[in-house]
Design the sequence.
């Protein structure tokens, strides 16, 4: 009932030529399944977004931003609004990626404003949550995830929250080659779904897609996706290699 969803977060990588060729190769590789059996999105750097959208014009792959600012427009030098992303042709946007939480120091309150602004602007936010290694070691995983989700979704009506996808990305697994085991992912995903059922209701929790992210690769995609509450993958490093990313998408159907 929940359609699988795989998104490739290119982070601050690629250039104009490689962004176009990567998008084209992925589109060709998954042309027979994208959109129909699985939702696929590419999240390129802002400056290459229009090239990527052009390269994907005949495919069913969506495009999204890696971040958004919460104000609709005005004197906010360097920022990009939800309306701009929508106008450029984006469908999705990441909110609260761990690199923004920990390197740029974004707070739950700021991330909540971004999630709301994204929905208001007609985008589908992907709210990223995840614990640090020391938090996991101190048995604080549930507490951290609960706080990030409650604060990230604060003030959203039932209708609005249905636009949200959640991505569970344990910080210790991002870019480290050390993925959570399928059982560890399932444990947290199940907890998140229960949390959403408590905050809203069982119907919303059943519909909400929860992606796993953190060293997802072609050789662990199927086992992660085999877990009942893992509905998709948010892929960083492995989404920069066309053949690897195509294999991940195929393994996730
Ligand atoms: P990774 O990144 O796949 O390179 O671990 C995932 C992410 O940060 O979204």
Sequence:
């Amino acid at each position: 009932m929940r359609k699988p969803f795989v998104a490739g977060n290119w982070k601050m990588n690629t250039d104009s030529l490689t962004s176009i060729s990567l998008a084209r190769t992925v589109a060709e590789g998954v042309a027979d399944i994208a959109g129909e059996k699985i939702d696929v999105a590419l999240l390129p750097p802002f400056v290459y977004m229009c090239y990527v959208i052009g390269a994907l014009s005949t495919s069913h792959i969506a495009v999204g931003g890696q971040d958004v600012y919460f104000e609709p427009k005005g004197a906010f030098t360097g920022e990009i609004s939800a309306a701009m992303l929508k106008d450029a042709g984006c469908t999705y946007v990441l909110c609260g990626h761990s690199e923004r939480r920990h390197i740029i120091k974004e707070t739950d309150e700021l991330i909540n404003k971004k999630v709301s602004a994204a929905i208001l602007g007609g985008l589908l936010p992907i709210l990223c949550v995840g614990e640090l290694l020391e938090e996991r070691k101190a048995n604080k995983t549930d507490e951290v995830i609960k706080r990030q989700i409650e604060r990230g979704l604060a003030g959203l009506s039932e209708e609005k929250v249905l636009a949200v996808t959640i991505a569970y990305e344990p910080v210790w697994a991002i870019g480290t080659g050390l993925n959570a085991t399928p059982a560890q992912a399932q444990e947290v995903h199940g907890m998140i779904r229960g949390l959403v059922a408590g905050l809203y209701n069982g119907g919303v929790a059943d519909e909400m897609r929860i992606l796993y992210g953190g060293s997802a690769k072609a050789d662990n995609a199927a086992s992660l996706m085999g877990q009942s509450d893992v509905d998709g993958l948010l892929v960083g490093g492995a989404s920069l290699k066309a053949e690897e990313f195509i294999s991940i998408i195929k393994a996730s159907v």
User: Anything to note?
Assistant: The first helix runs from residue 16 to 29. The CA atoms of residues 86 and 122 lie 7 Å apart. The beta strands are 5-9, 39-43, 62-65, 92-95, 124-129, 165-168, 210-213, 232-235. Residues 9, 169, 174-175, 213-216, 234-238 surround 2-phosphoglycolic acid (CB under 6 Å).
